[in-house]
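Quality-control log, excerpt.
Job 1 of 2 completed; input and output follow.
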Amino acid sequence: TEWSRRLFEAVDYVGLGTCEFLVEPDGRVNFLEVNPRLQVEHTVSEEVTGMDLVREQILIASGAELSEVPAPRAHSF
């Protein structure tokens, strides 16, 4: 989450988007891509975080700040 936030702040991106990374078994992080949209599998992210990402997208588009991102409470493969 922090890497994604820093990347979006560095390019002055406003809105909902996704960053994808791969974490190697040794802890190395590899950047894959950025997409300026809600990811197709956003329902998995919603289940893991408890956030309604469609609602967040609408709020951001109307000028609101992003809600505090909760710590993940699960994971998926």
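Job 2 of 2 completed; input and output follow.
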Amino acid sequence: MGRRRDSTKFKEFNGILYGKNYDPLGKQWLLFIPKHLEGILKSLHDAPIASHLGFAKTYDRIRRKVFWPGLYRSVRRYVSHCRECQRRKSPPQRPPGLLRPILPAEIPFAKIGIDLLERFPLTTQGNRWIIVCTDYLTRFTVTKALRSGEAVEIAKFLVEGVILKH
């Protein structure tokens, strides 16, 4: 039988050191190999089958198999400095803003909505775009085919087709 030495955080059995696992669903003692920590990180994060899964999954995968003090900090540092993860990671996106109701206008054409529909097949008149202007109060809609979606053509439609007529 092997020699045993107990402490609160570590246990040695047959010359192999184990660390206490505080996860109630996991093994009670996990292997502790201080000389191979970097290799373990590489094999459980960088290997082709590891897939560079990010901090949370890498940490969870390692903490179930081995123990070392400062594991959380080590994995966090390692993953945050991984070039492959930084290259693949999508940029952070801001959450969508709060939706607010659009209150109806008091008089027709005081509030309008405009949509520009693009790249339709070329018509015989040379048009590819359609502009749609809708009054929020009456739902009255004005449309026109346009040659381009440029600001000058849109402004001309708004002035001549909407503002001066309504």
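Post-run check on job 2. The radius of gyration is 32 Å.
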